[in-house]
Amino acid sequence: AQSVTQLDSQVPVFEEAPVELRCNYSSSVSVYLFWYVQYPNQGLQLLLKYLSGSTLVKGINGFEAEFNKSQTSFHLRKPSVHISDTAEYFCAVSDPMNYGGSQGNLIFGKGTKLSVKP
Amino acid sequence: KAGVTQTPRYLIKTRGQQVTLSCSPISGHRSVSWYQQTPGQGLQFLFEYFSETQRNKGNFPGRFSGRQFSNSRSEMNVSTLELGDSALYLCASTPTGGPSPLHFGNGTRLTVT
User: Fold this and answer.
1) Residues in chain A with pLDDT < 70?
2) Distance CA B55, CA A95 (A)
């Protein structure tokens, strides 16, 4: 079965420093990959997605991610973080066995809590 | 365009009771999915509805059920509530056709006492 591993449960970082949140997935077949952000008491908001094409994907709020098929990774990066980036970040992958008929079944990692300190 | 709307935002129920949560998707979106979010298990897929039909189901007991109406609005029901059902329940919608990201509502926080 498909699985997603977010290697760090918590990442503390100082404001204006760069950050990388790591994500690995288990499938070796073609997949769709997503990063979502969740602020306290809110739902998930899409940051960026990889469906096909260029392996470097740019998203909102200055985030970007790089798809690496050989390493089955999809790490999220930002060159300079702000206090407002403090939130929980989730990596998600589509289940290739289900995607043809079902768009709603995403497999999520356990999340990484990013804490930006002044 | 209005986002995904979930009602109510908060619910407190007692063990053994049942509960119904509501979700209105983004206008034009016909697929609605439900997820349970807990600190221990993270985000887990409950089920997905498309055109009033359940298209996919996660690994949850039969106490968890859902339905979708002709206007794409969806409800999920949990019967015989257990303490472990306390969670944030998130609804998400997608447009039809091709891979599209999920658009999430702000969730319903259910507390079972």
Assistant:
1) 28, 95-104
2) 14
